[in-house]
């Protein structure tokens, strides 16, 4: 952009010089030759004055344009040189504020584990059987761990299948047992979860 600034200032200087010269002589030097009878086509004083004013106006416009270009260049340079305010880590001895313990911030309490497990259970009811594990995996975010545990009696008399999932916080504490009731072999054509219940303790 520096080249544009220089060019605009040069143009401004040229327009100023053209405005300062004798406009009548300038007309005779540059335009009169185009006419067969120049004396009959010589411009009036008001027309020459308007031409002088136009030259000064063009000079002012060139200067304004150059200033705007300089300002835009300055803004771009400041943006490039500005240091990022996020995503930068500093040594702990240079920091004036305590660094939060990310592990503690993401560890669920007993009540939070239970609440999260109940939310997972509510989402499972009515879902297709093959969506159970993906849903539990998705809903059990980084703060919640899950582990599948098969019940002792996989099939009951009425043909329902029970699958248990043990949920804990990310440190393996505060376990709860999520029991999912799925249609067994005696429920042909039924592929949706019947119920999902949560109880405290390990499965």
Automatic annotation (TrEMBL):
Origin superkingdom: Bacteria
Matching InterPro entries: DUF6199
Region (Disordered): 78-105
Transmembrane segments: 47-70
Domain DUF6199 positions: 8-67
Pfam family, one: DUF6199
Record keywords: Membrane, Transmembrane, Transmembrane helix
Biased composition range(s): Polar residues: 84-99
Name the record gives this protein: DUF6199 domain-containing protein
């Amino acid at each position: 952009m520096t080249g544009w600034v220089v060019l605009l200032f040069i143009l401004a200087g040229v327009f100023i010089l053209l405005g300062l010269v004798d406009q009548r002589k300038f007309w005779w030097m540059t335009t009169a030759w185009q006419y067969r009878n120049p004396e009959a086509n010589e411009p009036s004083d008001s027309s020459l004055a308007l031409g002088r004013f136009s030259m000064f106006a063009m000079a002012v416009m060139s200067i304004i344009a150059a200033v705007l270009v300089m300002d835009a260049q300055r803004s771009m340079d400041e943006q490039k040189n500005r240091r990022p305010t996020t995503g930068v880590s500093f040594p702990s001895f240079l920091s004036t504020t305590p660094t939060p313990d990310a592990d503690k911030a993401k560890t669920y309490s007993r009540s939070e584990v239970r609440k999260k497990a109940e939310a997972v259970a509510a989402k499972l009811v009515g879902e297709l059987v093959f969506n159970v594990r993906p849903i539990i995996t998705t809903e059990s975010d980084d703060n919640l761990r899950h582990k599948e545990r098969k019940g002792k009696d996989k099939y009951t008399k009425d043909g329902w299948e029970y699958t248990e999932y043990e949920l804990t916080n990310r440190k393996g504490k505060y376990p709860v047992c999520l029991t999912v009731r799925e249609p067994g072999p005696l429920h042909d054509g039924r592929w949706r979860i019947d119920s999902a219940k949560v109880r405290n303790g390990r499965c």
